[in-house]
Write a structure and sequence with these properties.
Helix content: 55-70%
Shape: rod-shaped
Strand content: under 5%
Structural class: mainly alpha
Order of helices and strands: HH
Number of helices: 2
Distance between the termini: 88 Å
Length: 64
């Protein structure tokens, strides 16, 4: 005898599987890994610190 299958559940499971496959493809094409994002953020923070450290204070000069 055949197994009774709820078609609504099967349809939803297939849709979830298709969405997961599409999401994986999009991550490969468009995404960056967490490590890449964190490395970029750390590099930006370091560059900001270096730039702020090299800032010249121009207190009392005309034009400001």
């Amino acid at each position: 005898m055949a197994e009774i299958v709820n078609l609504r559940r099967v349809k939803k499971a297939k849709a979830r599987q298709d969405a997961a496959v599409q999401a994986a493809q999009n991550r490969v094409l468009h995404g960056r890994s967490r490590a890449e994002r964190e490395a970029a953020a750390a590099g930006k923070q370091q560059a900001d610190r270096v730039l702020d450290g090299a800032r010249l204070d121009r207190d009392g000069e005309p034009g400001e």
